[in-house]
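hey m, so remember when u said the tokens were messed up on ur end? i reran from scratch. heres the input so u can diff it against urs
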Amino acid sequence: MQFSVTGRNLDITPALRGYAEEKLNRLTRYLEDIVAIHVVLSVAKHRQIAEVTLRVRDLTIRAEEESDDMYSSLDLVAEKLERQILRYKGRIVAHATRGTNRVGRVAAVAPVVEEEPPVVKTKRFAIKPAGVDEAILQMNLLGHSFYVFRNALTEEVNVVYRRRDGHYGLIEPEA
């Protein structure tokens, strides 16, 4: 398992790194297949923020917490990840074993057209084949309001999103 700690506006001391590693390695009790843990610790004014991203085979789980103390932030984010893992554990294991022989595809990026407002950030990522339920699960684990995926049934690029009423929407291209 790969473990990395990054500091923003903060020097990572060996004690802080050791505490983060100790707290987050406990998550292997619930998921043995954790490939990588990336921790970003940052300080902004009086806020101590801990962001953690877990890679579990094809899935990504993310959590972020803040408090007045970095150690407390790490405790809170570890508890949050533990709750997420316990809530989705059955689905995560089922989906992770189902997708072991899939090959991720890289999304085609549309050419940038100069308009107002300008594009300030571009992200590239692999679009993995998934069912709608699996895409909703991944979106919830990431904490995002939408998720782009390749529909395993139609092989088309789809977008699932969270609606204001709490339900989910699916965007499919026209044939």
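this time it looks ok to me. The domain at 2-98 is CATH 3.30.160.100 (Double Stranded RNA Binding Domain). if urs says something different then somethings off w ur setup not the seq
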